Structures are given as structure tokens and as C-alpha cells.
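Margin note: ligand = FE2/S2 (inorganic) cluster.
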Amino acid sequence: MVQVKMTVNGKAASGDVEGRTLLVQFLRENLHLTGTHVGCDTSQCGACVVHVNGNAVKACTMLAAEAEGADVLTIEGVANEDGSLNTVQQAFQDHHGLQCGFCTPGMVMTATALLKENPNPTEAEIRDYLEGNICRCTGYHNIVKSIMAAAGQDVSRIAAE
Ligand code: FES
Ligand code: FES
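Resulting structure:
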């Protein structure tokens, strides 16, 4: 076992893990932050996306020990300070960017990373950025629309699906 220490959602977190423990396991099983989901075992679905030192990372592709000392942000840490939904979360709610919700934490974390890099993305840029996130329910249309809305774009011309 090895001890790992990191900052998660602004708070110090530590635990004893096996060397092979993945970051997503550490978050879910040690810290009980179960908003970060596991949707595959092939690093394809993106349900596990968190931010590590400000970058979107699939938490199933990183060992917990590799996050030693890192600053990790999960879906549990993105709401506004008063607990209300942040701009991206609110846009997903307003524009029906989710159905079952399984992919949603990863989608929100990926969308947040995109908007940090590119605050005014085109529809094509959003679709390209979401390539690593799979949704089995929505057909992506309303996810893209939600992200455009979160960027402050007028989505009234885009039909609902
Ligand atoms: S669980 Fe990480 S990509 Fe699917
Ligand atoms: S809303 Fe169900 S997988 Fe995306």
C-alpha cells in the first residue's frame, strides 16, 4: 500500500491505496465522491472525466499515486458557493442536455474544460471536443446546445430534438 495525498475540490484528501488503484477508484471508493462515474473499461466513454491541475483527465486512465500532490476537481466541486448550479450545469438543465444522467458529470467536466480553453466555441468545435465522451441517450444534440448556451450563445435558432 502507498499513501496518497492530494487536494480534491479544495480540501486536503489522503488515503492508503494499492499501487494499481486508479484515480477514479480512489475518488469513488476512498473519498465516496461517486459523481465521477465508470462507464467502460476501455478508456473510451468519458464518464470519469475530472480535472487534474486544471486539465480534463479520464480518471480511469491515471493511477491515484500519479495524482500525488495534485489539485483535483470533480463534479461535486463545481457548483456555485451557495450550492446553486453553475453556468454549465444550469445550461444542461435548461436545455435538456441529459436524460439518464450517467454521462453528465463527465460531459459537464469536459464542457467546462472546453469553455476555459475556448470561451466561444462553434458547434463543430464542441462536437470535436466531445469526441471522448459517449452518451447513450441524448444523441448529443441537446448536449451541444447546452454548451453553446453556457457560452452565452443564442440557441433559439436551434430546434429542440
Ligand atoms: S470509465 Fe473512464 S473512459 Fe470510461
Ligand atoms: S444522458 Fe444517458 S448516457 Fe448520456
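The two ends are 49 Å apart (CA to CA).
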